[in-house]
Amino acid sequence: MLMPAHNPLPLPIEAERVHDAPVHVPKGPSFELIEETTWEELQRTGRRQPFDKPVLVKGGIHHWPAWKKWSFEFLADVCAGKGAEVPVKFTDGLVEQGVTKGRPFLPVAPYLRELGKAAQRTPDPMAGLLPKPVRDGYKPGERFHLNWAHMQSFKPTTLYLAQWDILEKYPELRRDLLIKSLWPGRMTWEYVFMGPANTVTGLHNDFPHNWFVQLQGVKEFILFSPDQRQHMCPAAKYDWGATLSDINVSRLPEQVRELASFEKAHGYHARVEAGDALFIPKRTWHSVVSVEPSISLGMFGLTPYEVATGGAWATLRDWAHHLHLYAWGNCTCHQVLPKRS
C-alpha cells in the first residue's frame, strides 16, 4: 500500500545493516579499471562522443555552476521555497530485480536535509566493492575481482529519489547545467538521482547513450559491454527504455544459476566522484552502488533519427504496457499486488 503524502519524518534513509551468520562470498566477474581522462584533455584533443566504450572524465563538470551550487541544503531550499511542496514519488529499495513494491509519495526538502546531515559523517575509506586504497593499486588493463561481501553487509531497502525530472518541476535550475558542453547537437532528457549511501540501482542497460554526472558524493559503477549480453541473464521484467537483468547484485549467493553465468563476464569498474562525468554507451549493462550520500544527474542524448526509431519503439511498448497488453504485473512502474485466493 502506498504511503500517504503527509507521511512524517524521520525518514528511513539509512540502509539496514545485516548481522546474520556469514554467507558464501562469490568471486563474481573479472573487471578492469575504466578508461579515465580529464575535461582539459578532451578539450585539448577535440575528442568527441559518442565513445565506443565507457569513459570517466575526471572534473568533467567543474565548469558547471551546479558544481558549486548544488548541495543538499541548496536543493532543499529550492524545493521548499515555493510554499506547500507537492510530494514526489520515491523508490523504495531495489526495483530492477525482484518484486516491485509500492512507491511512497513524500516531500523532497525534509529528505534532502536528512541526507545533508548524513553527508557530514566521515566515510569509511574501506567501504565499497573496490575501496579507493585498493583500487589505486591496480594498473590499467589489469584484471581483478570485487569485494562482493560489501553487498551482503546491508539490505538495499532505503528510500531513493531516482529518475526525478527535476528540471520540469524547477526549470530555473537548468541555468546551472551546461548540458550542451557534454551533449552538443543532441536532444536530451535529464533525470536526477538523490539518496543515501548503500542505495543500489540494479543491473540493466538503456537504449540511448548516457552522460552521468556526479554533483555530490561517490558512486561505484560496474559496466559490461553489449557483447557480454550472453552472461547478463536478460529479464522479462519491463522498464521504460531499458532491458533489465535477472541478476540481483545484492543477492548473488542466492542465485546459483545466474551467478554461474555472471562469473563468466568481463567488465569495467568506475569510481565516480563529485565533479566527474561518466559516459555510458547505449546498451552497456551497468549497476550502481552509492558509497556516500549522493546527488547525480543522468542525461540521455539522442539524435532526431534515434528519437524517431528507438524512442518511438519504446513509446509504443509503453502504451502496450499501460493498456495491459505487455508485461502487465511484471514491471518497475507498478506495484505487484498479492493474488486473491
Give the helix/strand class: alpha+beta
In what range is the share of β-strand residues? 25-35%
What Rg, in angstroms, do the CA atoms define?
Answer: 20 Å
> Average pLDDT, to the nearest integer?
90
How many structural units, i.e. domains?
1
Order of helices and strands: EEEHEHHEEEHHEEHEEEEEEHEEEEH
Approximate shape = globular
Mind describing the biggest β-sheet? 8 strands, mixed
CATH level 4 superfamily: Cupin
Which CATH-level-2 architecture? Sandwich
CATH class: Mainly Beta
Cα-to-Cα separation, first versus last residue: 18 Å
- The CATH topology turns out to be Jelly Rolls
Low-confidence runs of at least 5 consecutive residues: 1-10
Classify the helix fraction into a percent range: 10-25%
Count of alpha and pi helical runs: 8
For the secondary structure, the number of strands is 19
- Order the strands across the largest sheet as they lie in space: 3-4-17-12-19-10-9-6
Give a topology summary.
Layout: E1 16-17, E2 30-33, E3 35-38, H1 39-45, E4 55-58, H2 65-69, H3 72-80, E5 88-89, E6 91-92, E7 105-106, H4 108-119, H5 132-135, E8 154-155, E9 159-164, H6 166-169, E10 187-195, E11 200-206, E12 209-216, E13 218-224, E14 234-239, E15 242-245, H7 256-262, E16 266-273, E17 277-280, E18 285-290, E19 294-302, H8 304-322
Helix pairs in contact: 3-4
Q: What would you say this structure looks like, in words?
A:
The protein is α+β, with helices and mostly antiparallel strands and 341 residues long. The protein has helices at 39-45, 65-69, 72-80, 108-119, 132-135, 166-169, 256-262, 304-322, and strands at 16-17, 30-33, 35-38, 55-58, 88-89, 91-92, 105-106, 154-155, 159-164, 187-195, 200-206, 209-216, 218-224, 234-239, 242-245, 266-273, 277-280, 285-290, 294-302. Strands 3-4-17-12-19-10-9-6 form an eight-stranded mixed sheet. Helix 3 (72-80) packs antiparallel against helix 4 (108-119). The radius of gyration is 20 Å and the shape is globular. 39% of the residues are buried. It has one domain (24-322): Cupin (Jelly Rolls, Sandwich), CATH 2.60.120.
